[in-house]
Design a protein that fits this description.
The protein has 157 residues and is an alpha+beta fold. It contains 5 helices and 6 strands, in the order E-E-E-H-H-H-E-H-E-H-E. Helix 1 packs parallel to helix 3 and helix 3 runs parallel beside helix 4. It starts with a strand and ends with a strand. The model has no long low-confidence stretch (mean pLDDT 95). It binds zinc ion. Zinc ion binds next to strand 1 and helix 1.
Length: 157
């Protein structure tokens, strides 16, 4: 049996100059970070929600509540690994995941290979990452935050 799931996440940029920008498990040195309870890795969160949705296991907030101090500042790849383990426990294996990150800046192209490598290693299946500018439109176009969409295919025999 195959099932698909989609995930979406969005985080505003933080006013805290000390916050790192982490996307797909990769820290983009010198860039303004995103606000959030964990490391605010919008890409890892969207991928996790796509996987949970595909397996019919709810959403990330239900499994890792942002009121839980254990996840404050957490590495979201650890959350993602936890989600992959939940799926594995239900007999699901991941076919692939495809990601679209929408942000006006910074340019993701130089970081895409590292993001794909980190995410694929955690998910245990190919993860492709694409970046798209918002063409100046709306809050994303005004560089107020970053949004991410992800689609996942999961299978079990
Ligand atoms: Zn998030």
């Amino acid at each position: 049996m195959s099932r698909v799931g989609m995930g979406f996440d969005v985080h505003p940029f933080s006013d805290d100059p000390g916050r790192p920008l982490v996307l797909g498990g990769v820290t983009l040195v010198g860039e303004r970070g995103l606000a959030g309870h964990s490391d605010a890795d919008v890409v890892a969160h969207a991928v996790a929600d796509a996987l949970l949705g595909a397996a019919g296991l709810g959403d990330l907030g239900a499994h890792f509540p942002d009121t839980d101090p254990a996840w404050r500042g957490a590495d979201s790849l650890r959350l993602l690994a936890g989600v992959v383990a939940l799926l594995a426990a239900e007999g699901w294996r991941v076919g692939n995941v495809d990601v679209s990150v929408v942000l006006e800046s910074p340019t993701l192209a130089p970081h895409r290979p590292a993001m794909e490598e980190r995410l694929s290693a955690v998910v245990g299946a190919p993860v492709s990452v694409k970046a798209k500018r918002a063409e100046g439109l709306g809050s994303l176009g005004r560089r107020e935050g970053v949004a991410c969409w992800a689609v996942a295919l999961v299978e079990r025999g």
